[in-house]
Amino acid sequence: MIKEEAIIIGAGPCGLAAAIELERIGLHPVIIEKSNIAHSISMYPTYMHFFSTPERLEIGEIPFTTPNDKPSRLEAINYYRTAALRNSLRVNAYETVLRVDRQDNGLFRLTSADRYGEEKQYEARYVVVATGYFDHPNYLGIPGEEMDKVTHFFREAHPYTGMEVAIIGGSNSAIDAALELERVGAKVTVIYRGAGYSSSIKPWVRPGFEAKVNNGVIRMLFESRVVEIDKRHVIVESPEGRHPVANDFVLALTGFHPDRDFLTSSGVRIEEEGFPYFDETTMETNVPGLYLAGVVASKHEANEIFIESGRFHGNKIAEHIVSLR
Ligand SMILES: Cc1cc2nc3c(=O)[nH]c(=O)nc-3n(C[C@H](O)[C@H](O)[C@H](O)COP(=O)(O)OP(=O)(O)OC[C@H]3O[C@@H](n4cnc5c(N)ncnc54)[C@H](O)[C@@H]3O)c2cc1C
């Protein structure tokens, strides 16, 4: 049994920010990360740029400088890795937390599997769950979704040159992917259930996208849903009825949701609306000593917490732990 004062699950921006804050109050937390630092960001589209300006992504008051207005994915990975290394954060990489149980003595027992597949047991007074949402795409639950030509993660456009590509969704991820695909010569159809453009689309991106739709370069289907995928088509349902659209690849960019299995298995109360109970001022759940940080604490929509806001959860947790002393 490895004894720790505090364990943070997940080395995304919000888990790292929480670790820096706990270090500042004299705890020396270990972060257990199933992949490596800033894993989710490393899996984002290769050439993406954040919508936030760099200072809004900073953690631990470490300056994030870039000559660009909005940082790129690569700059963000470099920034978070440097922040972790400069603060000498303890990161157990390639180790997955499997269970968190609160024992009768008030301490938590964590079970994990390390990169060699060996089980490890920890005991800790405080646990911060900062597991994000990126592992859990919102599946459509339609026939054909399991086919190899369907992905919920867009990386880069090049493999789609000359192909008929359906993008499902109408948020920034869908719009950015459509523009990138069109530039490499893919034939793009965006299929979106909304009646008009989503208000969340970055205002500096929308005019260019709309122009491409208006010029017929990108096909945009509003009030439409894909109800089935087969080898050569997607079947689209719209107010006019059902019709097939020629298709080689599907990018289902329909968002993500946090997985709350640890939380429920360790006694966290799930509210009627489906999100876990926690105190907004301390980030503590109904289980004393078990905290949430980052996007795992989202309530209705997984996109209501960003790095911009989730990076401050660690401050609340640290303040609460200090107040208990
Ligand atoms: C394309 C895109 C663009 C975005 N742009 C912006 C932006 O401009 N500004 C902004 O503020 N936000 C932006 N966001 C949102 C932002 O990236 C997320 O809100 C942020 O990553 C959340 O950080 P987090 O630390 O909560 O979770 P994550 O970054 O997802 O980190 C969670 C970590 O937990 C690990 N983990 C999960 N389960 C386990 C387990 N069982 N055991 C061990 N480790 C585990 C994961 O591997 C991961 O490393 C964007 C999101 C996307 C998808």
From TrEMBL:
It comes from the Bacteria. The keyword Transcription does not apply. The lineage of its organism: Bacteria, Bacillati, Bacillota, Bacilli, Bacillales. Its cofactor is FAD. NCBIfam families: Bthiol_YpdA (TIGR04018). Keywords: Flavoprotein, Oxidoreductase. PANTHER family: THIOREDOXIN REDUCTASE 1-RELATED-RELATED. Signal peptide: none annotated. InterPro entries: Bdr, FAD/NAD-bd_sf, Ferredoxin-NADP_redctase_2. It holds the Pfam family Pyr_redox_3. This is YpdA family bacillithiol disulfide reductase. The gene is trxB_2. The keyword Flavoprotein applies. It comes from Paenibacillus glycanilyticus.
